């Protein structure tokens, strides 16, 4: 045996010791990282989930209030109801990018709970409306205040998680919106039925009071639970903050660090000149535009022969199936992050087929089943589209991601402005125009996300 105790493979004892130390160090870091991710999950996911659940309930409760008597009491025409939906999204879209720029330079643990308390108060005030004009004004104000929340959550999630960790977390986030549809319907049915006339107040007015108080109350709790950004979060030790930042830099090949700050105009210019932002925006617009029909679920179900409270309860299975499909999609998509675009395209094909069939089939029960699967495809696509965009913007600075994610989300919600006109009451019960437009948008989405998948395979999404 040669001097130095070399093995047959040319390694001596010192080499083995060095290899063992390297393996032990890597294992130790991986153990620390898993513990850190669990801690991040514990602080962020339950808090954000409940915040978004209440946010979505506050945003969509107008649909439940409508069929519980609000439309008759305020003497709203179908067009006026559509406008009361639209004004929310006008202010919401306008203020998303500015709000996210403010958030990128402030503390999420203060900014997000603050705006949540304010929109909870405004939601309570909606119980006192006596006219169409007052309803429109308050809906516009809620849109301004909620504008900073959803894009703010997207920025936070993209700031804490690796690309292959994001689909599951975005699925958890979107599941709150899905469950709010089911929970909102149950809650609305219970409140409007059991509190009808209590203290001389109509049930639909109690709906705004109860949900607004719940929102403001949870916002006060969230102030003490939300994390800020990796390098500034006070709930982590210095070692954990360093690991939280470094693991993203390694995962994403040199993400712009939190110290590399951009001015608002610089971030806006870089974002608006990035072709990826525009392609993801087009894709997300068709998904959200198609999902506008969720506001009309109670009305569509009423068209199947169910009335008032029963119509609200019959929307629950629609969201229940979507919840399960969304969770499974998020879980498996993190195992194949390179195929997110393809998975979205497949879900949109399903929604497209269901939408087309809905315009042809006349049996009400069959149309209800089609509506269930169409909703599952759209909701599953929604969560995955956000994680796909977020992971593709990982190379940007915090301000750049703030603008890009807010822009994608804002333009997506812009689609809901015209979507509010897709299902006028006079088109019931078949709503051929609405489902035809949804079919066309799903077809466009299939093309967009198939293209993004093809571009991603060539490695051009990460450059």
Compact overview of the structure:
The protein has 463 residues and is mostly helical.
Describe this structure in words.
The chain contains 17 helices and no strands. By secondary structure, it is mainly α. Helix 9 crosses helix 16 (398-419).
Helix-strand layout with pairing:
Layout: H1 13-73, H2 78-104, H3 108-125, H4 132-146, H5 149-160, H6 163-194, H7 203-222, H8 238-251, H9 264-272, H10 275-291, H11 297-302, H12 308-313, H13 316-333, H14 340-360, H15 364-392, H16 398-419, H17 432-457
Helix pairs in contact: 1-5, 1-6, 1-7, 2-4, 2-5, 2-16, 3-4, 3-7, 5-16, 6-7, 6-13, 6-15, 9-16, 10-15, 10-16, 10-17, 13-15, 14-15, 14-17
Keywords:
disordered N terminus; 463 residues; single chain; globular; mainly alpha
Q: Biggest sheet, open or closed, and with what strands and sense?
A: none
The percent range for helix content is over 70%
Uncertain residue ranges: 1-5
Distance between the termini: 52 Å
Can you count the beta strands? 0
Strand content: under 5%
| Helix segment tally | 17
Radius of gyration: 24 Å
Please state the overall shape, judged from the principal axes of the Cα atoms.
globular
Overall pLDDT metric: 85
Tell me the structural class.
Answer: mainly alpha
Give the ordered list of helices and strands.
Answer: HHHHHHHHHHHHHHHHH
């Amino acid at each position: 045996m040669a001097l130095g105790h070399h093995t047959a493979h040319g390694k001596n004892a010192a080499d083995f010791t060095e290899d063992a130390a390297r393996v032990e160090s890597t294992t130790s870091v991986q153990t620390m990282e898993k513990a850190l991710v669990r801690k991040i999950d514990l602080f962020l996911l339950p808090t954000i989930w409940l915040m978004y659940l209440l946010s979505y309930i506050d945003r969509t409760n107008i649909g439940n209030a409508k069929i519980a008597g609000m439309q008759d009491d305020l003497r709203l025409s179908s067009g006026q109801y559509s406008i009361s939906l639209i004004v929310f999204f006008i202010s919401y879209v306008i203020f998303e990018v500015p709000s996210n720029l403010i958030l990128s330079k402030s503390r999420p643990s203060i900014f997000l709970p603050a705006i949540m308390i304010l929109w909870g108060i405004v939601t309570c005030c909606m119980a006192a409306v006596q006219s169409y004009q007052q309803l429109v004004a308050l809906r516009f104000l809620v849109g301004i205040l909620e504008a900073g929340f959803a894009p703010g959550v997207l920025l936070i999630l993209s700031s804490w998680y690796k690309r292959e960790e994001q689909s599951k977390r975005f699925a958890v986030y979107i599941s709150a919106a899905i469950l709010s549809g089911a929970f909102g319907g149950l809650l609305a049915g219970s409140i409007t039925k059991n509190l009808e006339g209590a203290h001389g107040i109509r049930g639909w007015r109690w709906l705004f009071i109860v949900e607004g108080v719940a929102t403001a109350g949870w916002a006060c709790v969230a102030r003490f639970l939300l994390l800020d950004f990796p390098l500034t979060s006070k709930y982590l030790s210095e070692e954990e903050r360093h690991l939280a930042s470094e693991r993203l830099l390694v995962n994403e090949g040199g993400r712009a660090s939190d110290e590399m700050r951009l001015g608002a105009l610089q971030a806006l210019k870089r974002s608006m000149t990035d072709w990826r932002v525009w392609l993801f925006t087009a894709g997300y617009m068709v998904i959200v535009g198609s999902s506008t029909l969720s506001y009309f679920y109670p009305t569509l179900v009423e068209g199947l022969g169910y009335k008032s409270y029963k119509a609200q309860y019959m929307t629950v299975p629609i969201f229940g199936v979507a919840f399960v499909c969304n969770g499974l999609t998020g879980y498996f998509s993190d195992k194949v992050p390179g195929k997110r675009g393809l998975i979205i395209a497949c879900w949109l094909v399903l929604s497209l087929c269901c939408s087309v069939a809905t315009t042809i089939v006349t049996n009400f029960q069959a149309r209800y089943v089609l509506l269930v699967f169409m909703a599952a495809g759209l909701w599953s696509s929604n969560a995955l589209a956000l994680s796909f965009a977020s992971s593709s913007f990982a190379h940007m600075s915090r301000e750049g991601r703030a603008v890009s994610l807010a822009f994608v989300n804002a333009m997506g919600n812009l689609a809901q402005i015209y979507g509010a006109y897709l299902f006028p009451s006079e088109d019931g019960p078949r709503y051929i125009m609405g489902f035809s437009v949804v079919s066309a948008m799903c077809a466009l989405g299939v093309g967009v996300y198939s293209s993004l998948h093809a571009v991603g395979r060539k490695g051009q999404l990460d450059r």
